């Protein structure tokens, strides 16, 4: 609803720009469309933004845009992508340009990593994009994309060319502010915003559309004083420090879904043979109102303490962190989305109203994966002194203390 308002604001703005050239009565708007016919330009690559990006403040004090650009080769030959520019058409400036290895790394064709930024005949790919800005006023109202590509089947004089498109508004809402989902200290934000691929690239063709409900998901782990995820047998869920922690309602809400009774998997290997409806394991979805829903996944069997339809209050216990569903090790998977389904929804950014960052892993997800596989410590650089954050999204690989009410 709010998002729609942003779109119409931008459309109104673009219309104003158009009528600014020729005067502003209705006749002149018609005249403008009659006289300012767009020059035809052959564009071998067609493009569209899959979901309107929403600007979000992160714990690095920057504003972030995370979104996907679908690119389709509309020719009968190959289209070799050379560069993708993201532009602000209102301010007439280039915001970012991707080429070479950077472009290749961001492109997936039919869900696969590619070794070259090349689209085969009639093939399409999805480019995963992340932009950040120093403050809210720098975030554009609109995005436009320019793709430089070599199309071997294009007319002789147009084999190398620039395709322009993928125009999208940038939303500022909904602004989702949440309370702590857990209690205590030394929680590690794994696979979070804005480049770790496991959640951000979890694009699924569901119910006739692409869905990316996990775009801003975080897998929460807890570390001990030595920054280990578990101590003891790797295959015993009780070895993990987060196992059994109480998950808390992040806001006053209605329980849209509460599922319990699914078994836990043995930590260290993904369970086999799960269907899509079992992926979240024992889980709770809260309805926060205004089209905002929060998913908590992978609870211990028998621990879900709310039922579908219950009203819950911020801070109320919903269940205990476990290892049910499609889970490698015990953790709390939490994300926010625009529909009451863990998968058939569009993932929304969110902020926590108050938290403290005490450390950060500067090595990367591979270091976290190693710690998870071996029981060795995650490599953490302490933040001295710890930094308190208000209304921000904790970014990937940070260590958080929750400041509960
Ligand atoms: Zn997850």
Task: Indicate the topology.
Blueprint: H1 2-22, H2 26-35, E1 45-49, E2 56-57, E3 63-73, E4 79-88, E5 93-99, H3 100-106, E6 107-109, E7 112-113, E8 118-119, E9 124-133, E10 142-151, E11 160-169, E12 177-178, E13 187-190, H4 197-200, E14 204-206, E15 209-211, E16 218-222, E17 246-248, E18 253-259, E19 282-289, E20 292-299, E21 311-312, E22 317-320, E23 332-337, E24 347-348, E25 351-352, E26 355-360, H5 365-374, E27 381-389, E28 398-402
Parallel strand pairs: 12-25
Antiparallel strand pairs: 1-3, 2-3, 3-9, 4-5, 4-8, 4-10, 6-7, 6-9, 10-11, 13-16, 13-28, 14-15, 16-23, 17-22, 18-19, 18-21, 19-20, 20-23, 23-24, 26-27, 26-28
Helix pairs in contact: 1-2
Bound molecules: zinc ion.
How would you explain this protein's 3D organization?
The structure is a single chain. It contains five helices and 28 strands. The protein has 405 residues and is mainly β. It has three domains: 1-33; 41-169, Immunoglobulin-like; 177-402, Distorted Sandwich (Glucose Permease (Domain IIA)). The strands form six sheets. Strands 13, 16, 18, 19, 20, 21, 23, 24, 26, 27 and 28 form an eleven-stranded antiparallel β-sheet that branches. Strands 1, 2, 3, 6, 7 and 9 form a six-stranded antiparallel β-sheet that branches. Strands 4, 5, 8, 10 and 11 form a five-stranded antiparallel β-sheet that branches. A hairpin with a 2-residue loop joins strand 19 and strand 20 (292-299). Helix 1 crosses helix 2 (26-35). The longest helix has 21 residues, at 2-22. It is globular. Zinc ion is lined by residues 199, 217, 219, 333.
């Amino acid at each position: 609803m709010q998002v729609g308002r942003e779109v119409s604001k931008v459309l109104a703005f673009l219309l104003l720009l158009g009528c600014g050239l020729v005067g502003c009565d209705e006749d002149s708007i018609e005249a403008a469309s009659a006289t300012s016919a767009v020059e035809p330009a052959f564009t071998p690559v067609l493009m569209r933004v899959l979901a309107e990006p929403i600007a979000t403040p992160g714990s690095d004090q920057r504003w972030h845009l995370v979104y996907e650009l679908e690119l389709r080769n509309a020719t009968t030959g190959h289209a070799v992508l050379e560069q993708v520019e993201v532009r602000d058409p209102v301010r007439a400036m280039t915001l970012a340009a991707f080429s070479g290895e950077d472009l290749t790394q961001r492109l997936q064709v039919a869900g696969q990593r590619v070794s070259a930024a090349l689209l085969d005949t009639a093939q399409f790919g999805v480019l995963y994009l992340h932009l950040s800005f120093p403050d809210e006023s720098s975030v554009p109202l609109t995005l436009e994309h320019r793709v430089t590509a070599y199309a071997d089947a294009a007319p002789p004089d147009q084999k190398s060319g620039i395709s322009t498109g993928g125009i999208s508004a940038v939303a500022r809402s909904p602004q989702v502010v949440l309370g702590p989902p857990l209690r205590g200290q030394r929680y590690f934000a794994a696979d979070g915003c804005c480049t770790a691929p496991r959640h951000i690239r979890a694009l699924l063709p569901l119910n006739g559309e692409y869905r990316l409900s996990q775009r801003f998901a975080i897998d929460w782990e807890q570390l001990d004083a030595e920054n280990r995820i578990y101590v003891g047998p790797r295959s015993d869920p009780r070895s993990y420090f987060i196992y059994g922690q109480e998950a808390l309602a992040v806001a006053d809400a209605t329980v849209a879904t509460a599922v319990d009774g699914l078994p836990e998997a043995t930590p260290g290997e993904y369970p086999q043979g799960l269907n899509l409806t079992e992926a979240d394991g024992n889980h709770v979805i809260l309805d926060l109102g205004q089209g905002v829903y929060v998913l908590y996944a992978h609870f211990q069997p028998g621990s879900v303490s709310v039922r579908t339809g219950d009203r819950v209050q911020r801070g109320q216990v919903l269940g205990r962190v476990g290892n049910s569903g499609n889970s490698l090790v015990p953790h709390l998977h939490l994300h926010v989305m625009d529909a009451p389904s863990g998968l058939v929804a569009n993932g929304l950014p969110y902020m926590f109203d108050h938290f403290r960052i005490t450390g950060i892993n500067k090595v990367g997800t591979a270091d976290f994966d190693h710690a998870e596989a071996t029981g060795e410590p995650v490599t953490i650089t302490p933040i001295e002194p710890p930094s308190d954050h208000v209304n921000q999204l904790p970014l990937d690989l940070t260590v958080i203390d929750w400041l509960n009410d």
